[in-house]
Automatic annotation (TrEMBL):
Keywords: Coiled coil, Membrane, Transmembrane, Transmembrane helix. The chain crosses the membrane at residues 17-42. Residues 38-65 form a coiled coil. This is Preprotein translocase subunit TatA. It comes from the Archaea.
C-alpha cells in the first residue's frame, strides 16, 4: 500500500521502488513457500511418529493383558 502511494504521488523514484518491491516479492516468495512446506512436512512427520509410538505402547499393554488372561 505504501509503495503504491509513493508511486501515485509522484515521489522521485516511486515507480522504480514499485519494480524493486515486485522483484523482491518474486524472489522471496518461492523461498518462503518452500520453507513453510518443509516446516509443515517435518511437523506432520513428528506427529505421525508420536502417534505410532502411542499405538505401539497400547499394543504392548494389550498383549500383556492377553498373556495374563485378563
Amino acid at each position: 500500500m505504501l509503495v503504491a502511494l509513493l508511486a501515485q504521488f509522484g515521489v522521485p523514484g516511486g515507480p522504480e521502488l514499485v519494480i524493486v518491491a515486485l522483484v523482491l516479492l518474486l524472489l522471496v516468495a518461492p523461498v518462503a513457500l518452500g520453507a513453510v512446506a518443509v516446516f509443515l512436512l517435518l511437523r506432520r512427520r513428528s506427529a505421525l511418529e508420536e502417534r505410532i509410538a502411542e499405538l505401539e505402547s497400547e499394543m504392548d499393554r494389550l498383549r500383556e493383558r492377553v498373556e495374563n488372561g485378563r
